[in-house]
Specification:
Low-confidence stretches: 1-14
Mean pLDDT: 94
CATH architecture: Alpha-Beta Barrel
Helix content: 25-40%
Distance between the termini: 9 Å
Largest sheet: 6 strands, parallel
Structural class: alpha/beta
Shape: globular
Number of strands: 9
Bound molecules: zinc ion
Strand order of the largest sheet: 3-5-6-7-8-9
């Protein structure tokens, strides 16, 4: 048993694997009507969000995102959070970080939910990832980009984002912390994330990369789902069914490669899913790609999601 919809859910699945995406999707803004763009009459990213939703729904993905189409997942947030400046594409911490007056992703979230007419996952980039992606200016009140004060201040800013998304109806919120897998101070990072997700009904934390050395620590996150990549890294080898069940945590099982444009055949994905089912139990996994699909072509992204959903359904049929 994998997922039971609540009455208010508008998804058409009753039971089965939760299929989802990590977040970003490669649809591009519509810049065809330059006149309307200059006059500010048209938001070129709205059509990109619509297309991202259409593709995810048509591929059969159950829990979708707004596609994170406006910018990469660092720039998207830092350009809106007071205390950050973006210079030559690089985030610089120039002052104390405070929550933005207007949430970064709320308008897109509401727009996406309105056209999708179903649950949409709220997604925020985690404080450690935003901090480590930045340079700290000497005038800023932080010692360096690993200063715990900086990480906690960014966590407060992103907690406001989460709270706005929850008010707009988001039950599932994902925090992206890929930087956890590259040797940062995970203890501080986990404390910061745990504080942000206290009130979230279904919190998910995404950490791609090699998590074999940190997985035990990641179990200290108060999450419903830990989401990782498995296609190119044997992260499955360190995850034990007893350990995740003891913490009531499910695993977001990344089973299509988000960096390789070659679309995996359904049977290949099925085989990957079966190995996770065998080790962790079907009830303990969600199905998704390794990471965001932003770096692929739209055609490849759609084909990967379609094959992923078909593979998940084939595995489901084998279990029932
Ligand atoms: Zn990732």
């Amino acid at each position: 048993m994998y997922y039971e919809c609540e009455e208010e859910d508008t998804t058409n699945h009753v039971t089965g694997f939760v299929t989802t995406v990590v977040g970003s999707y490669p649809t591009k803004p519509d810049v065809s009507n330059v006149y309307a763009l200059i006059k500010g009459e048209k938001d070129p990213f709205r059509s990109a969000i619509e297309e991202a939703i259409k593709d995810q729904v048509n591929a059969g993905v159950q829990l979708i995102s707004d596609g994170q189409v406006r910018a990469d997942f660092v720039t998207l947030f830092v350009r809106n959070i007071p205390g950050f400046k973006v210079r030559a594409g690089r985030p610089i911490v120039v002052d104390r970080i405070t929550p933005p007056e207007k949430p970064t992703t709320l308008d897109d979230y509401i727009f996406a939910k309105g056209i999708a007419k179903r649950d949409v996952k709220g997604i925020v980039t985690g404080p450690s990832t935003l901090a480590y992606a930045s340079v700290v200016d000497e005038k800023a009140p932080y010692k360096s980009n690993d200063d715990p004060e900086l990480i906690y201040d960014i966590a407060d800013a992103q907690a406001m984002e989460i709270s706005a998304l929850m008010k707009a109806g988001a039950k599932i919120i994902q925090v992206d912390e890929p930087v956890f897998s590259v040797g940062v101070n995970v203890e501080i990072g986990i404390q910061a994330v745990n504080k942000m997700i206290e009130a979230v009904k279904t919190p998910v934390v995404h950490v791609c990369g090699d998590v074999r050395n940190i997985f035990k620590k990641l179990l200290e996150l108060n999450v419903s789902v830990l989401d990782h990549e498995f296609t190119n890294v044997d992260n499955l080898s360190v995850i034990e069914r007893e350990a995740i069940e003891a913490r009531n945590i499910q695993i977001g099982y990344g089973c299509v490669d988000s960096n390789d444009i070659r679309v995996e055949p359904i049977e290949v994905i099925e085989k990957r899913i079966r190995s996770a089912v065998k080790k962790l139990g079907a009830e303990n996994i969600w199905i998704d790609p390794d990471c965001g699909l932003r770096n692929l072509t739209r055609k490849a992204a759609f084909a990967k999601l379609s094959n992923m959903v078909k593979a998940a359904k084939n595995v489901e049929r084998g279990i029932k």
